[in-house]
């Protein structure tokens, strides 16, 4: 099962998924409505509609909104498809997506300048920034 890692209160990175049948083929989502559900210890944190990126190819995306990633710890998630014929299927149908939200170090915004190429403009702070690795 997939594990997704986030930091508390981050909303920029969406969850993208291709929903597949037991044979590994994409599930057609034409006319369907897809919900995304995320919970911790049995309490719903998120329960709302996901967007369909490619109905024929079974591709969906879920963009977090403010407040939906404020709960830290290990959470379970799933996509639930309501097909146009009235049937329902949940993905994954065995277990859950695991979402681990780590506590942010500070909730106070800071301001630093970064230029392309990776060097902080502050001359007293000479650490290079290379795509997230210091």
Task: Give a short overview.
The chain is built from no helices and nine strands. The chain has strands spanning 3-7, 15-18, 33-40, 43-49, 51-54, 59-62, 73-82, 88-91, 97-102. Strand 3 and strand 4 form a beta hairpin.
Task: Identify the notable features of this structure and list them briefly.
mainly beta; six-stranded mixed beta sheet; Immunoglobulin-like; 134 residues; elongated
**How many distinct helices?**
0
Largest sheet: 6 strands, mixed
Please state the CA-atom Rg, rounded to the nearest Å: 19 Å
Extract low-pLDDT stretches: 118-134
User: How much beta, percentage-wise?
Assistant: 35-45%
CATH architecture: Sandwich
| Termini Cα gap | 30 Å
Order of helices and strands: EEEEEEEEE
**How many extended strands?**
9
Structural shape:
elongated
* Percentage of residues assigned to helices: under 10%
Mean pLDDT across all amino acids = 85
Count of spatially separate domains? 1
CATH fold topology: Immunoglobulin-like
Secondary structure category: mainly beta
CATH class: Mainly Beta
Q: How would you describe the overall organization of this protein?
A:
With 134 residues, the chain is mostly beta strands. The protein has a single domain (3-102), classed as Sandwich (Immunoglobulin-like). Helix content is 0%, strand content 39%. The chain is built from no helices and 9 strands. The protein has strands at residues 3-7, 15-18, 33-40, 43-49, 51-54, 59-62, 73-82, 88-91, 97-102. The strands form 2 sheets. Strands 1, 3, 4, 7, 8 and 9 form a 6-stranded mixed sheet that branches. Strands 2-6-5 form a 3-stranded antiparallel sheet, with no helix packed on it. Strand 3 and strand 4 (43-49) form a beta hairpin.
């Amino acid at each position: 099962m997939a594990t997704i890692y986030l930091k508390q209160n981050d909303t920029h990175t969406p969850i993208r998924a291709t929903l597949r049948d037991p044979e590994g083929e994409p599930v057609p989502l034409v006319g369907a409505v897809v919900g995304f559900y995320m919970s911790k210890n049995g309490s719903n944190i998120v329960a709302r509609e996901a967007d369909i990126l490619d109905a024929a190819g079974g591709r969906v995306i879920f963009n977090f909104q403010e407040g939906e990633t404020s709960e830290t710890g290990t959470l379970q998630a799933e996509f639930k498809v309501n097909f146009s014929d009235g049937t329902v299927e949940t993905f994954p149908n065995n277990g859950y997506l695991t979402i681990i939200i780590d506590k942010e170090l500070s909730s106070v915004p800071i301001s630093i300048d970064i230029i392309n190429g990776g060097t902080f403009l502050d001359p007293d702070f000479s650490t290079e920034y290379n795509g997230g690795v210091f």
